[in-house]
Design brief:
This protein has helices at about 5-15, 20-30, 35-50, 55-65, 95-100, 120-125, 140-150, 160-170, 180-190, 215-230, 250-260, 270-285, 290-300, 300-315, 320-325, 350-360, 405-410; strands at about 80-85, 110, 150-155, 195-205, 235-240, 250, 330-335, 340-345, 375-380, 385, 390-395, 415, 425-430. It is of the alpha/beta class. The protein folds into three domains: about 5-50, Up-down Bundle (Transferase, Pyrimidine Nucleoside Phosphorylase, Chain A, domain 3); about 80-320, Pyrimidine Nucleoside Phosphorylase, Chain A, domain 2; about 330-415, Pyrimidine nucleoside phosphorylase-like, C-terminal domain (Aldehyde Oxidoreductase, domain 3, Alpha-Beta Complex), CATH 3.90.1170. The strands form four sheets. It has a four-stranded mixed beta sheet with strand order 1-4-5-13, sandwiched between helices. Strands 6-9-11-7 form a four-stranded antiparallel beta sheet, sandwiched between helices. α10 (about 215-230) links the parallel β4 (about 195-205) and β5. α1 (about 5-15) runs parallel beside α3 (about 35-50). The longest helix is centred in the middle third of the chain and has 17 residues, at about 215-230. The two termini are about 40 Å apart. Pfam families: Glycos_trans_3N (PF02885), Glycos_transf_3 (PF00591), PYNP_C (PF07831). Catalyzes phosphorolysis of the pyrimidine nucleosides uridine, thymidine and 2'-deoxyuridine with the formation of the corresponding pyrimidine base and ribose-1-phosphate. Its cofactor is K(+).
Length: about 425
C-alpha cells in the first residue's frame, strides 16, 4: 500500500498511532530517498511531542533492523553476549568488561561507536593503541571471536542504514532525547549485530541523556522488552553518571586505567562495579559466577591476557603498553588543588566531560580530530575528604589551558562538610 508522508505526519501530530505497515513504509521510503529529510524531521518532531506506544516502538525497531544487513553469528559456538551503554563521561567499561567476560569462555562480539560532544567513544580509546584496527570484515570479525574469544570493531555502514540516517537528522533537529527513538536506535543495532544476549547500561544523571531515574527506568524497560520480543535475552542496569566513571577522562589515559584495572589495580569500588556487570553478562550466557571469582580474573591476569589477545588480533601493538601506562605526553599540564577542606560533594560529569572535550579529548563535531593525549585525571572522587591544597585533578592538553578552562573545572566541583555516598548501580531491570 502507498501512503502520503504528509498524512502520516499529521496523524502523529494529532496523537494517532501508526500501524506496522505505515512504519515499514516510512522507513523503507526514507532510506531510498523518496521521503525527504524535511518531512522526516517533521515526523521526528511529532513523535517528540506525541510519543509512541510500545507496539509502535517495536514496529519501528524491526523496520530499522530490516533496513540494512544483519550479522549471523551462528558459526561462533556458545551463547554470544553483547553490551551497550547509553553514554557517559569516563566510560571505559567495555575495555575491561569485554575481556573479563571472555576470560570465562563466553564469546563477546561487540560493535562500538565513536564519541561526540562530552561522551567518549570506545573506538577512539582503542585507536590510542598504536596500530589498532577497528575495521574488520564480517568473516574476519566472526573468526576473531572464535579464536580470540572477543572482538570490538566499528559498526558496519551496511548495518541498520535507517538508524544512521535518522540519528544524523535527529542530532541537528533537537529530537535526540525522546525514549521511543533512543530505544529503537539502540536496539535495532544490537538486534542486527547478532548476539544472543544483551546487557544494557542505561546511564542517568548529570552526564547522561536521561536526567531522572524514572526516565531511565522507562527507557530500560522499553529496551528490555524490545530485546525479549525478538528472542534476545536482555537485562538493563541503571547506573549513576552524576560524576565521571573511574578516575580518567580522555582516550589514552582511559586505556591506562583499563590496563591497570585488568592487571588487578584500581579502587575496590570500581573493580566491584565492573565485576557486578560481568556477573550479569555471564548469567545471560548461563554462567553463574560469584563476584570473588570474577575479581580473581582481574588479579591473576586472565582478563588481561584476553585484552592482549584482542589487541594482537586487531593489529595493535601490545608492547606499547609501557608507553600507554606512562604519564600523558602533552605541552600543558595544570594541577587543580582544593580551595578548602571538606568532602567532595559533587564532580559534575557534564562539566568535566565538556572540559575534556575542549582540552582536545573529544569532538564538538563529527569531523573534529581527537588528541589522544589530552584529558583529565582525577585524584579524588565524591565522598573523599580533602585538606585545603590537596590535589583534586590534573588537566592535560596540547593547547594552552586558559584561566577560563580552569574555572570551568572548578565550577564542576563542590566541597562540603557532609560526606556523600553515591552507588554506581542504581537498579536492575529484567
Amino acid at each position: 500500500m502507498t501512503y502520503r508522508m504528509v498524512d502520516l505526519i499529521q496523524k502523529k501530530r494529532d496523537g494517532g498511532a501508526f500501524s506496522k505497515a505505515e512504519i515499514e513504509w516510512i522507513i523503507e521510503n526514507y532510506v531510498t530517498g523518496f521521503v525527504p529529510d524535511y518531512q522526516m524531521s517533521a515526523w521526528a518532531m511529532a513523535i517528540y511531542f506525541k510519543g509512541m506506544t510500545t507496539e509502535e516502538t517495536a514496529y519501528l525497531t524491526m523496520a530499522m533492523v530490516a533496513s540494512g544487513k544483519q550479522i549471523d553469528l551462528s558459526a561462533i559456538p556458545g551463547i554470544k553476549v553483547d553490551k551497550h551503554s547509553t553514554g557517559g563521561v569516563g566510560d571505559k567499561v567495555t575495555l575491561i568488561l569485554a575481556p573479563l567476560v571472555a576470560s570465562f569462555g563466553v564469546p563477546v562480539a561487540k560493535m562500538s561507536g565513536r564519541g561526540l560532544g562530552h561522551t567518549g567513544g570506545t573506538l577512539d580509546k582503542l585507536e590510542s593503541i598504536p596500530g589498532f584496527n577497528i575495521e574488520k570484515s564480517e568473516d574476519a570479525f566472526i573468526e576473531q571471536v572464535k579464536t580470540a574469544g572477543l572482538a570490538v570493531i566499528g559498526q558496519s555502514d551496511d548495518l541498520v542504514k535507517a538508524d544512521k540516517l535518522l540519528y544524523a537528522l535527529r542530532d541537528v533537529t533537537a529530537t535526540v532525547d525522546i525514549i521511543p527513538l533512543i530505544a529503537s536506535s539502540v536496539m535495532s543495532k544490537k538486534i542486527a549485530a547478532g548476539s544472543n544476549a544483551i546487557l544494557l547500561d542505561v546511564t542517568v544523571g548529570d552526564g547522561a541523556f536521561m536526567k531522572s531515574v524514572e526516565d531511565a527506568r522507562i527507557l530500560a524497560r522499553t529496551m528490555v522488552d524490545l530485546g525479549k520480543s525478538v528472542g534476545r535475552e536482555t537485562v538493563a542496569v541503571i547506573t549513576n553518571m552524576s560524576q565521571p566513571l573511574g578516575m580518567a577522562i580522555g582516550n589514552r589515559n582511559e586505556i591506562t586505567e583499563a590496563v591497570n584495572t585488568l592487571n588487578g589495580k584500581g579502587s575496590k569500588e570500581f573493580r566491584t562495579f565492573i565485576a557486578e556487570l560481568a556477573q550479569l553478562m555471564l548469567s545471560l550466557a548461563g554462567e553463574s559466577k560469584s563476584i570473588e571469582e570474577i575479581i580473581s580474573h582481574l588479579d591473576d591476569g586472565s582478563a588481561y591476557a584476553k585484552f592482549v589477545a584482542m589487541v594482537k588480533a586487531q593489529e595493535g601493538d601490545p608492547t606499547a603498553f609501557d608507553h600507554l601506562t606512562a604519564e600523558l605526553n602533552v605541552k600543558y599540564k595544570v594541577e587543580i588543588h582544593a580551595e578548602k577542606a571538606g568532602y567532595i560533594a559533587a564532580e559534575k560529569a557534564l562539566g568535566v566531560g565538556v572540559l575534556a572535550m575542549k582540552l582536545g579529548a573529544g569532538r564538538a563535531t563529527k569531523t573534529d580530530t581527537i588528541d589522544f593525549e589530552a584529558g583529565v585525571t582525577l585524584a579524588k572522587k565524591v565522598g573523599d575528604f580533602v585538606e585545603k591544597g590537596d590535589l583534586i585533578a590534573t588537566l592535560y592538553s596540547n593547547k594552552p589551558i586558559t584561566a577560563e578552562l580552569i574555572a570551568e573545572f572548578n565550577a564542576a566541583i563542590e566541597i562540603s562538610n557532609d560526606k556523600i555516598h553515591q552507588k554506581e548501580i542504581i537498579e536492575i531491570v529484567r
